[in-house]
């Protein structure tokens, strides 16, 4: 417990250092603290796959951090500025985009992410998919005026396409959530140049919905689609809530997840980027297919075998308060969208 507390505090410390720093060296330090804190959490189970995942994660993050340090040093060499917001040299900007894309798992630097989520526990996967992506996203927001819009748009559309396309034939839920994360990153990055505030709103709502799904899966210990099929016979209320949360993550209208997609498409249309808005909206249909498949498995299908015992309507599994709050927020926040949008 003491070690877990130290690692959790280090994660919070690393994130705080990065998001509150103005100097590139401090931002880099925060990212390194984050990486070193999450490694023991990934390899906690001592399973060969977990050890492999932590090794891969370390190598990828170390490479990305080196690139980030190199881009900031080259910018300081050319301009004499170590300030994060003063990244102006074009080569440094391209190097920084590459480094942050590698840290986030954007296409074409996405190969490590599904493998590492598959090798981690559900709660560590949640940390990797949400909190660990927050500091790099903030760095992108701070440097957004200097970045190349064409490069970011290409990477965003590629991420949305690949996240939906490759997620179609997965049976492991953690891998499906990894490709879902890649697809959502595409939505965040495409609007980064034009409306950084929208990127943050998208990230917050994505993190909220993903947390609700991972907490639900953790409470029922579900890792595969075949296990998900038996959820309805054990705890039907949670299965129904999971279905709604998955549809919210897909971005269907009455649910919370519709808000960021609606606003992003609206903003892209205002910027006269109708083709880009249409393309990314159509690509989200690929993701919708596998979300619907997950929802179908959770609520409609029963396991393909004869069950001799009575259905377990009253099980020992209790839904904790945090999961209930997360599910409620991730499905019912749409009426509060004017309030969300006025938050500075």
Automatic annotation (TrEMBL):
Q: What is its EC number?
A: 7.1.1.2
Reactions listed under catalytic activity: a ubiquinone + NADH + 5 H(+)(in) = a ubiquinol + NAD(+) + 4 H(+)(out)
Name used for this protein in its record:
NADH-ubiquinone oxidoreductase chain 2
* Transmembrane intervals: 57-77, 89-113, 150-169, 176-194, 200-217, 238-259, 279-302, 322-343
Single GO cellular component term? mitochondrial inner membrane
Lineage top rank: taxon: Eukaryota
Q: Check the record and name the PANTHER family matching this protein.
A: NADH-UBIQUINONE OXIDOREDUCTASE CHAIN 2 (PTHR46552)
Q: What GO molecular function annotation could you give as one example from this UniProt entry? A: NADH dehydrogenase (ubiquinone) activity
Question: Which residues does the UniProt record annotate as the domain NADH dehydrogenase subunit 2 C-terminal?
Answer: 288-341
What does this chain do?
A: Core subunit of the mitochondrial membrane respiratory chain NADH dehydrogenase (Complex I) which catalyzes electron transfer from NADH through the respiratory chain, using ubiquinone as an electron acceptor. Essential for the catalytic activity and assembly of complex I.
Q: Which GO terms describe its biological process?
A: mitochondrial electron transport, NADH to ubiquinone
Query: What family is this?
Result: Belongs to the complex I subunit 2 family.
Domain NADH:quinone oxidoreductase/Mrp antiporter transmembrane: from-to ranges: 21-286
Annotated keywords: Electron transport, Membrane, Mitochondrion, Mitochondrion inner membrane, NAD, Respiratory chain, Translocase, Transmembrane, Transmembrane helix, Transport, Ubiquinone
**Does the record carry Chloroplast as a key word?**
no
Membrane topology, as annotated, equals:
Multi-pass membrane protein
Pfam families named in the record: NADH_dehy_S2_C (PF06444), Proton_antipo_M (PF00361)
**Where is this chain's protein located in or outside the cell?**
Mitochondrion inner membrane
